[in-house]
Amino acid sequence: MYRWLVIPIFVIACVAVSSIPQYAFSADKQTVDKELTTFIQQLFANRAKYLLRQEDGLLRDFYMPERASSMRAMKHEQMRAQYVQTWVKHRQLRLADAASSPRVIRAHKRNDQVFVSAVDSLRLGYTYNQPSSQVELFGIGTRHALTLIRKNGSWKVLREWYLDPLEENPDLIPKLTELPRNSASNRVNAKTNQSSGLHSTSTRYNRDKAIDYANKYAGIAWGAGNNHRYNPRYRDYTGQGGDCTNFASQCIGDQEGGGLRMKGGWHHYRSGGSKAWVQTDAFKNFLLYSGYGKVIKKGSYTGIVQASNQHPNGAWAGLKAGDLIGYELNGDIDHFSIVVGFDAQGYPLVNSHTADRYRVPFDLGWDKYTMYWLIHIRD
Putative amidase domain: which residues (predicted)? Predict the structure, then answer.
């Protein structure tokens, strides 16, 4: 599951919301002219630059102040940048890199308007506020449906909607009071981009392969493999409530991945996945009751980071690459991701679908009300 961002904001039933991208991507096939492609490339390039430096001139020429829907679209990009900059500040970081690689999928022209479906692979990078800190790169993939309109001989954004993992209130970001103090094994792990114990002789859960699978099939996120495509052997649930749990199940259960045996209602068939395979809460319950997983801790960001008698380095220090994180909102699990490694300071990095993430800091895009389920997958 995940939250849909719709610009402009509508009150729409879940089925209607999920159909918006499908409608946009079903537009008539036409040759996308060079001018339109150039506009899309420049639009996304300037948005990426705006994440680094909030200069209004980077966005202003792409929007129309006299159209409310256009201004809402621009306002979203401004709030997105404010969120990212606030997050890096609270994590004692500096945003050091941002670059977009958009691709037009469909374009359907009608009179002076054009309906565009596009995908964007956004690369972001941060450094710690320390001497000689290396740039940590990660990727986010988003799917966009835009309506453009001609004005004075050039294209402008009339409206846009997309599923945005960075759509959060910057005022709700919990602060990190000190740098991570993960275990020694995870510090070694952070330098090698592998998890401790990955080469276990256990045949039950293959962490190496689970992580390789997560990196290969992370979709349109920058850094992902497989030509930015999902595994075609599986149904894509993006338009049916979200594909995150389906992807987490694949990572730990596919023979190309972690190789856990399907059992107890957790199955994938040719027609799709069972309830426990694709639904967040059912998947969490299966993991715990099957014995495949155990909870390290459930808590807020502060609760899992702070040291305690049980977790002297914070509960998050117990995570290994190949473990899972569930994200609870209002009493229900809303999202799942898989831990694929740690940065140079031991900060957990995750991959997921809906929206697509590749080695993203685990809490980016969430707030102080999010409850994190840190789930260790037994070897």
Answer: 204-371
